[in-house]
Amino acid sequence: MNASAPLAERPVAIVTGASRGIGRAIAEALSAHGYRLVLAARSIDDADATATTQPVAIDLRARDAARVVVDRALAAFGRLDLLVNNAGATPRGDFLAFDDAAWDDGFALKFFGAVRLCRAAWPHLVATRGAIVNIAGIGGRTGSAEFAIGGAVNAALLNLTKALADRGVRDGVRVNAVNPSGIATERTQTRIDQVARERGIAPDAAAHALASELRIARFGTPEEIADVVAFLASPAAAYMQGAIVDVDGGQTRTL
Question: What pTM does this model have?
Fold first, then answer.
C-alpha cells in the first residue's frame, strides 16, 4: 500500500490495545504502510482525532464495546480492511491463588473482546476481502504452572484463529495469529525490575539473566512484532490462512 495514495483509497484498520507497547508499534507500522486507523484502548485521548486516525477510549470488556468500535470505523472512514486484536494482559502467579473473578477477568478482555470484535467486523471484512490478525502468546502453546490463566486464554485465542480461518476460506477473510514472547514492553520491564530487586542486581543484569533463563539471546522489540503483523496484513501473505507465527527468539522449541 502506498502511503501517498488518496485518503479515500487507503485501507482501514482497527488496532486494539493501541496506546502503548506492541499495540502502539503495530499502529505506527500500519500507518507507515498507508492505513487509516481506529485505535481502541482504555487509556487513549479520544479527542485527538485526525483525517487518518480515530482514537476510541473504551473498555473492550463491555458487551457493546465491539459494536461501538466498528461503528466508529465505518462512520469515520466508510470501510474496514483489517482487525488486529492485541488488547489484553493476563496475570502470572500460582494457580491456587486465582479465584473465579480472576479467571473471568482474564478471559473477558483478551478472548471475549476479540470474539465480539471479530463478530462485529466480519461482514465488513467480507466486503473488502480483509484480514484479522490475533496477537496471542506462546503460553497458548506451552503450559506453565505460573501462567495458567494466560496460557488458557492464549490457547483459546489460537483455536479461535483456526476456526475463523476455516470460515474465512469460504468468506474471503484471512485470519492469522502472532505469538510474541520476551518482548521489551513496560510489562516486561516490570518483571525485570522485580527480578533485579529479588536478586539484588542491576536491571541490565536482571534482563540478561531473565533472557538466559528463557533460553533466548535477547528480548525482542515491539517493532519486530509490528513488522510481522504488517506482513500478515499485506498481499505478500495472501496464501497464509490460519497460520500461527511464533516471534519469540526461539523460546518455543516444540513442534
Answer: 0.93
